Protein: MBL fold metallo-hydrolase
Organism: Siminovitchia acidinfaciens
Amino acid sequence: MDELKLTLLGTGSPRPDLERSGPSQVISLGDTHILVDCGEGTTAQLMKAGIAPQSIQYLFMTHIHSDHIFGYGQFLLGGWGLGRRKLTVIGPKGMKHFHETLINLFKEDIDYRTSLGRPGNGVRDVEIIEVEEAGLVRTDLPLKITAAEMVHNVKTFGFRFETDDQTVVISGDTAPTPNIIELSRNADILVMDACLAPTAVYRNTKSAELQEIWNSLQKEHCSPEQAGEIAQKAGVKTLVMTHFLPNIDEDETYNEAVNVFDGEVIVGEDLLVIEPKASAIESV
Ligand SMILES: [Zn+2]
Ligand SMILES: [Zn+2]
């Protein structure tokens, strides 16, 4: 039986950041790679991680916010250009519209490339599955996949991926909710939105505008402490925090979570590879 493996591609946020690419991660089961979210830079990050973009046949979108989908155009067309001939995209309602809008925008471009002799498969026949509600997500993948609705300002799903003996959960963007505790019950790895980590961007700001944004964000995301509390209640083994604004205080972020969670805490960084059983960490 193949082991599950998690690769963080982008651990950033909507704010452009040289240290952190846009939100995206890969769950691998042997040679099968499943992309979850597709932020800015995803295709290049895949290549840096040693995962061929064209090898990805499944993309799960937690929600359709710009930071999670900016990389889709490059992944869709670039991955096809590299030889991908099959793709299924699973996401909330609106995914089909987003995909079709992009295909229409690039119609002439795609026509040109197919006229050169490239088959249209892998771009013109992309299967889009819109998840309507929480529950099992049916795919051809050899994994049990469950979606649960998160608390965010647009329809957002967290996803649970499990084999017979390993589980990885991706929260997407969310404020604290019982649904993420339920979804990540006893998981080996929980990748959790911790966007409210302490950062110089907002800390001690005198700007009323920034202060207002920071206050509003409390309803949309989790702090490291809240991520730790969720992991503790759910009984997960490893908490991986992600979706960071620029210049977070990493020590403080780690401590906030570790103070309330007995398991392993990882402050996510781009290209970190995490394996469930031994919780071994290596950088690629
Ligand atoms: Zn969002
Ligand atoms: Zn986001």
In short: The longest strand covers residues 4-10. The radius of gyration is 18 Å.
